[in-house]
Amino acid sequence: MITTYKEYIKLPKALSFEQMQTIHKQIILEVGKDSEALELYDDLIKVATRYATIRANWLLLSREEKLDQDSGRTSCHDSVITHLNMLARYLKQQGETAAWRDELGYEENDSYNRKAIGDFACYLVFVNSINAR
To answer: pTM above 0.85?
Structure first.
């Protein structure tokens, strides 16, 4: 199956590339040179990379393989959310707004926010990956 960005952007709570860039820029500005925030960001990137790998392969899996791997994918996705929350909480303790976290939304308010967070994790991995040349 071949998919496109045009198909993605029509989905509920899809984040445009520009929205993801803006959120990422906000995170970078708030993290700055704070060593603890940088460590939390690195941890986020590590778990996002694991999640993006699972997600990138998802459309290639058979139904049986998806059933077999679904709990692992969910657990990894939960970890991405936890790491985003930890970074936001730390930045707020340092006097930052972490408004980007509210912009991503919370699954308690709308289950599609969970998908948007997963999308953003994949964006972070995309940026990290293209800069690793």
So the answer is: yes
- Taking the CA atoms of residue 19, residue 102, residue 4 and residue 78 in that order, the dihedral angle to the nearest 10 degrees is 140
Report the C-alpha gap between 119 and 56 in whole angstroms: 11
Residues in CB range of 66: below 8 A, 6 or more apart: 58
**What is the DSSP secondary-structure string of 55-102?**
HHHHTTS-HHHHHHHHHHHHHHHHHHHHHHHHHHHHHHHTT---HHHH
Residue 77 CA to residue 52 CA, distance in Å, equals 9
How many Cα atoms sit within 13 Å of 28 on the Cβ side?
A: 9
| CB 29 within 8 Å of CB 37 | no
CA distance 101 to 44: 13
Angle, vertex CA 44, rays to CA 39 and CA 47, nearest 5? 125
Taking the CA atoms of residue 12, residue 18, residue 19 and residue 23 in that order, the dihedral angle to the nearest 10 degrees is: 150
Q: For the segment 50-101, what is each residue's pLDDT rounded down to a tens digit?
A: 999 999 999 899 999 999 999 999 999 999 999 999 999 999 999 999 999 9
